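Hi F.,

I've been meaning to write this up properly since the lab meeting, where we talked about keeping a consistent format for the predictions we share between groups. The idea is simple: the sequence comes first, exactly as it goes in, then the structure tokens exactly as they come out, then a line or two of notes. No screenshots and no reformatting. I'm using this chain as the first example so we have something concrete to point to.
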Amino acid sequence: MDNSQTLLEVRNLRKYFPLTKGLLRKVVGTVKAVDDVSFTISRGETLGLVGESGCGKTTVAKSILRAVQPTAGEILFGDEGGTVDLTRLEKEALKNARRNIQMIFQDPFSSLNPRQRVRDIIGEPLYVNGVAKGKALEARVSELMAAVGLRPEYMIRYPHAFSGGQRQRIGVARALALNPKLIICDEPVSALDVSIQAQILNLLKDLQDGFGLTYLFISHDLGVVQHISDRVAVMYLGRLVEIAPTQALFKRPQHPYTEALLSASPKPHPKYRGRARIITGEVPDPSSHQAAGCAFYPRCNYRKPQCAEQPPALRNAACSGVHQAACHFAGELTLAGI
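Output, unedited:
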């Protein structure tokens, strides 16, 4: 990585899952869950990753953590000793690198062990990595609980004694235990009520300022992404179709799929009510998808013959050097934003 401010750089990431059939598990096809994805995240930045279900967002997150082994590509991470490629690390080196990359999960009800006290849930990363034990561990857990807005004396309780928002705060405290540099937030507020969502989002922003954190924030909710992200990347069928600073993407999208996503986002004001731009058809089957042309071609309202013949590369849009879109006509189309 050339830029000293870049914490994470993903280069040409691919993750393919084989399709098997029969008793002998013969491979009959491949699902391209993530197909040639590249992006960077700077230190202290929040990159929002959006897209409909099944587009590959969570697979990208799991690949960064090596919870699944990438098929191809590089994942460069700025560690204390320099830049390391997470895809090539052996077991012990990967364990050390993971101390700087933690994850907040989507469901606060199933991501916490119901048989463990909160003290043990939050303190487990400290104990497993040999950072603290005994009184020192309890003191660190108490400090973390206070940081996320929970009373330290609740550490002897079990998860069932807490509400959904409080359980997610426990998950956030667990992610902070080892002082990571990067936190991957996988739909961290989608299972919560709207009022609680706002509290968790504000907590994440406060923690980012206080602890110098960097976020990869995965979400379906464009309103949430707009509130917390510095830049937004849009995925469709395993590929990035647009990436830009948040306000630029929301005001003037450069890809037809992004325009459709923005139009479907509810606007809580009668002055701004309008009809969503309907996308015809269904998302193609990733196991049979052919890369002859644009993946969005069958559903695009602006398609032309060229789109079916040549796959568009993610390139700079005409309006800005920091706004990229995978569309042959990026910068030429007039697309509606919010």
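Notes:
Residues 194-211 form the longest helix (18 residues).
The chain has ten helices and twelve strands.

If this format works for you, I'll send the rest the same way.

G.
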